[in-house]
Design brief:
The protein is α+β, with helices and mostly antiparallel strands and about 300 residues long. It contains 11 helices and 11 strands. It folds into 2 domains: about 160 residues, Ribosomal Protein S5, domain 2 (2-Layer Sandwich); about 120 residues, Alpha-Beta Plaits (2-Layer Sandwich).
């Protein structure tokens, strides 16, 4: 069995724009893969797709994105062999960290290698988009600007070296609800993604951290004040900046030292699920060695 990482992502900035005629929203966001990963084990079997999940109560069947990714690739490329998938979950569920999308991307990448399909990046990207708006970025990884519904990707100057403390509040936020709340506020202020792009280009971590913003944050924190309290706690504990990722309930803060990041994570562990991570410049299926070097 071969093993492939499925990296979590955070949003350094997220600007939700107008709702489109196809039901999706236009977005403009800066995304970053980080060194929290699920592990995908893959091996060829004679017939069918089988999936075993460890570490979370997830469906092992057709509703699971990893399973759907394998079936899509198998059918698209008319593969006669099957595959056994072992999924070890470490990324929290429904956390705004795109764990399911990362799993799907890792399966696409890994099975394309194991089945020796020789697909190019464009073909994998098209398949990824059929599985979800975040799957193409999960496949690309690193630091990137995502536009359209999230599928138009531009690689960016890497995030300066730092530590991120992820703090997941013990609740769930419905992404559909969050979008409805935003749609009910047509006069909301746009998030300035360009100022974040400039900070990245200049390698100015402090400026980037100060300007991080997420369109979902005002509506989500209004309903769930504990998320705002987590953000304020991160700032009080020395974060250069902190922001909600996705539609939550995870917030993260940027730190320059491992000591400060670890102290902050320990302080928040009593009332949130916390992780200390670093930026990863690899996409799904790649970069185990990079993460080990940075740990």
């Amino acid at each position: 069995m071969e093993f492939f990482p499925a990296w979590a992502k955070v949003n350094l900035g997220l600007d939700v724009r107008a709702k489109r005629t196809d039901g999706y929203h236009d977005v403009r966001m800066i995304m970053q893969t980080v060194s929290l990963a699920d592990c995908i084990g893959l091996e060829i079997q004679e017939h069918g797709i089988s999936l075993q999940v460890q570490g979370a109560e997830l469906s092992p069947g057709e509703n699971n994105l990893a399973y759907r990714a394998a079936k899509l690739l198998q059918e698209h490329c008319q593969v006669t062999k099957g595959a056994k998938i072992e999924l070890k979950k470490r990324i929290p569920l429904a956390a705004g960290l795109a764990g399911g999308s990362a799993d799907a991307a890792a399966v696409l990448y890994g099975l394309s290698k194991i089945w020796q399909l020789n697909l190019n990046e464009g073909e994998l990207h098209s398949l990824a988009l059929r599985l979800g708006s975040d799957v193409p970025f999960a496949l690309l990884g690193g630091t990137a600007l995502a536009e359209g519904r999230g599928e138009i990707l531009t690689p960016l100057t890497p995030l300066p070296d730092c530590y991120l403390v992820l703090a997941r509040a013990n609740l769930e936020v419905s992404t559909a609800w969050a979008y409805r709340e935003l749609d009910a506020c047509p006069e909301r202020t746009a998030v300035d993604i360009d100022v974040l792009l400039l900070a990245l280009c200049q390698g100015d971590l402090a400026a980037l951290a100060r300007q991080m913003e997420n369109s979902f944050e005002p509506v989500v924190t209004a309903r769930y004040p504990v998320i705002r309290e987590l953000k304020e706690a991160l700032l009080d504990l020395g974060a250069l900046g902190a922001v909600l990722t996705g539609s939550g309930p995870t917030v993260f803060g940027l730190f320059t030292s491992l000591e400060e990041a670890t102290r902050a994570a320990t302080s928040l562990a009593a009332w949130s699920e916390t992780f200390v991570v670093r930026p990863v410049m690899s996409g799904a299926g790649r970069g185990w060695r990079e993460a080990e070097t940075k740990s």
